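Q: Sequence in, structure out?
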Amino acid sequence: MKTVKSLYIMSVIFLLTVFQACKEEEYSPLNKGGSAPAKVSDVKIAPLPGAARISYQVPDDKNFLYVKAEAEIRPGVIREIKASYYTSELVIDGFSDTTEFVVRLYSVGRNDMVSEPEIVTVVPKTPPVFSVFESLKETIVETFGGIKFEMDNPSGAEVRIYVNTTDSLGNMVPAEIFYTSAATDRFSVRGYDTDARPFSIYVQDRWGNTSGTYENIFHPLLEKKLDKTKFRSTPLTGDMNDIIQQNRPITNLWDDALTDATMYQTNSGIKSLPHTFTIDLGVKAYLSRVVTHGRVSTNAGFLYNAGMPQQWEIYGSTDPNPDGSLDESWIPLREGPCVSFKPSGLPLGEVSDDDYQRQLNGEEFEFDRSDILVRYIRFSINSAWGGLSTSFFNMTEITLFGNVEEEIQ
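A: Exactly. Output:
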């Protein structure tokens, strides 16, 4: 009995000792004591848009661990970048101008001691926040229901584009905020009547640097969203309306649901692309644009892959040839095909948040022939992201806009 009791006491003492040791443990430098490492040397600077690439020679010092760079990127805002032992350059970004900025380079030792700074001056190229703003403000024009514009962002910087307009009380309020890192992109702000209204636009980067503001008065063109409850499947000879896979009928294209389970998918192996399908809109209208959702999925195996359409054409007619021929009874609504755009540009099978968000928002295509009265539309899906061997396609939703001229009884 005494032996058991002794063992119990010894176990308790051991656990208390371990607990106390853990409690008193402190994080400390890898090597205590010693001096700070020497400064970096042979510094070279290459200016970049809103940034600078700085290369250097690290000190020949066993105590050296990494390089730290500090700069005031705009008044009161300090940017810090660390570069590991294994590299001899770093990029410091976030600069707000093309003037001179002072950068301090420090060598940091394994003992956490910091060298005296090596002070250099950098002159960045035009920050993306300004070049993006300059590119877009030259393209802003009136469009159906609002305004549209394009932008160039060759450096791929992460930017936010703020668009403001007036509310019912005449106060300027946010209309849209667009997030993008694409090299080129197009945007539109819609949903307004034809009354003159002011719009203002500015650009901001992730460090809070802000461009100037563009302001102007615009007159949106008349446009309404077509009533999808009037849409009807109207297959012609050769169409794939009813050749479906996995209970995914064409009516899913106008159910306003954006899921894998509610998309339209043609059956594979029936025939190679192109696949066509035809819809009776239930009205005669002058169409201004279409918004399409390919496949809204976070799965890289499906998004911008497999049967998701990559290029297609859209035709309009009031009296199509019933034999399914794409003859003169059909008029192309665009001068060229609709081409799906992948913002990230990543290889097949790799996707980004921007890619997913683009399909969630839908891809917009304006019609060049908005002067053509249309009752029927016909899609010809010419290619899919999966490549030439793909013999099916899937699309989640289509939404059409324009001016309704006549209701069909």
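The radius of gyration is 30 Å.
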